[in-house]
Design goal:
homodimer, about 550 residues, alpha/beta, Luciferase, domain 3, GMP Synthetase, Chain A, domain 3, 8-stranded mixed β-sheet, 7-stranded mixed β-sheet, 16 helices, 26 strands, globular
Chain lengths: ~550, ~550
């Protein structure tokens, strides 16, 4: 029996129109460094988005299904592109400005971007690449920057404001199949070519609804969100779409992502909620210790993208009254997987145990754990396996294989269509996920798995340790053993024996690292994650000064 | 360009499996009057639902697409039917036990229910109808009640517990197109035959996600919800689906809907949130005044189904610290239309103005106002028109016309597929809806519209008035004029002149009723709404003692 409900598609167009109409007074505030922040209402942003759609269509000839790239910071114009490009039936390709030049060129060519909207401040990055960007016909420059670097380039150059000025504020929105692509985002994989995830209108809409839920980020018209996580990184975790959907105002940090300006803009503009990777919060915490600012407007900050040291969560809560909420996701999950809101009725201690986990999955993220040999692992809170997930905002393939078709690498997708996350952990009977490691970083020692992340977290809880990374290194007897690399705080002269004694009170004896090395800082990927591949290579190349304890 | 996201349907099956797995410890508590409430965990409810599906399939031969009726109060077994029947691909038809016998027979025959699951306490209602229920082959009785009334009936009678006992706790769930029907609910229209709305898996899932949002009812694992609104009335406003989705525990009132037992169960089981029509809250307020109970667990109550007197909202807030949130919906909207959560940054007085409105629409409910001649009315907060809506959980037709096809009566659906709500009101520039009347109840006086509801609300704010209903009556000079019918509080001897003087301070002079009548109580429909049709008929029949003021 078919239902009698209306067949209305879930589209980004609906987010654009609704936000502009029903939440017209909400604001997008973009930080400008010195001087006044730029302020626009959602109503103005909506009209400008429609003007942008008209400009792209009428002036640049952008048709449905074509790809428009954005090489931009988090700012109002980037949000306008977020809303306009998918609504007109085209696809927004957010370009990760931290990718190496060769990879940036590769992804633009792979996605066949016809237009690139670029911030003026990023022209020095784009200009040298342009000769190699074969499909790019138009460059639209938003915001200040030296445009002379584009002189002589093959593409037609436009000024963003001049392009949209005076355009109509209506657009004949196409009726869009909700399963069509709305946005493209390439994972910044550390091996092989980047892999494209083509989000659909449906996946963006459903994911935004989840972010709006209490079990998500709880967005509403009472909030102002500060997305520190870049808009080129999994849609800024959905924060800007969901803000526009519910009328939460948005504070855009633009290129001012250093701890000092972040503290300044929080004090001045007073956001209530924010989202970023742990390294950003670590930096902000140190900044606030050094130069206190009023950050009391912040109610909650969401932390994800890498495991968060519990010490950092507690520091924010105790020193600044800010609740740090742990979340887990991946580009392939739009990115929301799980959020660590604890259940009701717990003691403070129990609550912390839940909050330090990666959290609970929403109904739309189906989950299972599998062992190395592909068997299901019990969800009992202790058995460990690789996490596999399934759901309407989870990738089932990557964009553009050899023949332009979607492709499904075997190490990423199961034969029955689930995504293999590459994360290893346990799930409790009441559904809480604790990740212990990346599948590739886990240390396989004599048939047992040792979590590199668990060792790191314990080490980083030591008062003398600034950062620590633990990697697997080959061992004749055990197959692999952990190597602990440590960044000490300034002035500390603590020895390895003392650190190992500290660890020995917290983990089983057979997990204790024998090999130790001091490093100046932990190498990071373009999105701020520990880059353990680099440490393993340095070890292999003999670059580290390794001490072997008895 | 097609996206690379997984094509996973939004289904009730997902709600069932997720709730049972991830929120296994949450509870369904059913009130039993005296004695201990019945308590089951979501894990147990999930397993029992799967057993019910197996029993319906294996024992009763229920196939995909067939209809299973439920004639039940709000209790755990009803929730099990909610989860099991749609998940197996069948359709749950919730029967409104307050419908007149002839209509109840009509809807069962119209929907061709093969099975009816009925509470033992409702057998006296069902038994006399059974001979006329042509399609019903099986009756499944849940809970205590005299079953001898079924002796000799044509259908096979089963005991619910015996039927499900020992059945497998796995089921080969079919892959369901999310647009297929999951549940049937007939509107209790006061004119013509009842009209069936066939909710889809998709509409139930999306609507539940909206209920979970902060701009919805904010459901999460930290809450316990008390759905006083019946599960046969627009899925109890989505509360039980969304509770099972997020792990909010549920307090089921069963048949104990009188103010006394409601106050008792709130004090004993301590729910945090509830939902009901205004008359229920009015009764509870009087009960608490007469016999105080500890209702401090309640954080928020959602009120809808009829316009809520502001005096009632303020009384709950001031006397009991319970926030009353106004919401608007209809069976055809699953039922959520709008919720009156005010925006941030308002004075207390401004906030009340927003809270007394019907509220803000979510992105999934597109809205417009049209005049009597079909023109669009500006959304300026003052211009009044009929509300039309469009969206993925809104009916686009009714179930089963002459040839079994969906049908679209012209007075209910526009040619471009929007639902005509029959409600008249205004929408502000920032998206807040204020309904002033039903299109059929509005008083058309000399070319102006007078809101009957506004006059009623003012009258009911008078300390001597218990209830008041205002209806249009024919008038030679003005076409129509308001007739005020009033129920005075016990012992009051206030006169019509004094009431009119009270009104004259609150509405324009030309809106003041000339005709007044005392009544003993306002007649109500089966769902507790004022039944103005009855008052108009009594007036026309000369049954009311009408006083005409100068």
């Amino acid at each position: 029996m078919f239902s009698t409900m209306q067949d209305v598609p879930l589209t980004v167009t609906r987010i654009l129109v609704h936000g502009a109409l029903a939440h017209g007074k909400a604001q997008v505030v973009t930080w400008t460094g010195d001087g006044e922040p730029q302020r626009r209402t959602f109503h103005e942003v909506g009209l400008r988005s429609i003007q942008l759609a008209n400009a792209l269509h009428d002036e640049l000839g952008v048709e449905e299904g074509q790809v428009v790239g954005s090489l931009m910071w988090n700012n109002c114009e980037h949000l306008e592109a977020y809303l306009a490009v998918p609504s007109m039936g085209a696809v927004l390709h957010t370009l990760n400005l931290r990718l190496p030049a060769a990879q940036l060129t590769w992804v633009v060519n792979h996605a066949a971007d016809r237009v690139i909207i670029v911030n003026g401040s990023l022209l020095p990055l784009l200009a040298p690449l342009l000769p190699g960007l074969k499909s790019v016909e138009h460059v639209v420059v938003a915001g200040p920057g030296d445009r002379s670097v584009l002189d002589g380039c093959r593409a037609t150059v436009h000024d963003y404001e001049e392009l949209i000025e005076g355009r109509p504020v209506r657009y004949p929105w196409p009726v869009i199949d909700e399963r069509r692509a709305a946005a493209l985002c390439y994972t910044s994989g550390t091996t092989g070519d980047p892999k494209g995830v083509a989000y659909s209108h449906r996946s963006i809409y459903l994911h935004s609804m989840q972010i709006n839920s209490v079990e998500g980020f709880g967005m509403s018209g009472k909030e102002m969100v500060l997305p520190v996580v870049p808009m080129f990184h999994a849609n800024a975790w959905g924060t800007t779409h969901s803000a526009f959907m519910t009328g939460a105002s948005i504070l855009m940090p633009d290129r001012f992502l250093q701890p000092g300006p972040l503290a300044d803009m929080i004090e001045t503009v007073r956001p209530t909620v924010s989202a970023a990777v742990p390294t950003i919060w670590q930096g902000l915490l140190a900044e606030l210790d050094a130069r206190p600012r009023d950050v009391s407007s912040l109610r909650e900050v969401y932390i994800g993208g890498a495991a968060c040291p519990p010490s950092l969560m507690k520091a924010f809560e105790e020193r600044h009254g800010i609740r740090v909420v742990h979340a887990w996701g991946m580009t392939e999950l739009s990115p929301l997987g799980s959020v660590a809101h604890p259940p009701a009725g717990l003691t403070a201690e129990e609550e912390w145990r839940y909050r330090e986990s990666q959290g609970l999955f929403p109904a739309s993220v189906e989950y299972r754990l599998t062992s190395a040999d592909g068997e299901l692992v019990p969800l009992d809170g202790t058995s460990v396996g690789e996490l596999e997930v399934r759901g309407p905002w989870i990738a089932g393939a990557y964009f553009g294989g050899a023949e332009g078709e979607p492709f499904r690498p075997e190490d990423k997708f199961t034969p029955d269509g689930w995504l293999k996350t590459g994360d290893v952990g346990a799930i409790t009977e009441d559904g809480f996920l604790t990740l212990t490691d990346r599948a590739k970083d886990v240390i396989k020692s004599g048939g047992e798995w040792i979590s590199s992340v668990e060792l790191e977290n314990h080490l980083m809880a030591h008062p003398d340790v600034a950062e620590a990374a633990v990697v697997a290194v080959p061992d004749e007897k055990w197959g692999e053993r952990p190597l602990a690399t440590v960044v000490l705080k300034d002035g500390s002269g603590i020895g390895y024996e003392a650190l190992r004694a500290f660890l020995s009170e917290r983990v089983a004896h057979w997990q204790l690292p024998e090999r130790w090395a001091l490093i100046e800082e932990v190498p990071k990927t373009s999105v701020g994650k520990f880059d353990k591949k680099v440490i393993r290579r340095r070890y292999a190349d003999g670059e580290l000064e390794v001490t072997q304890l008895a």
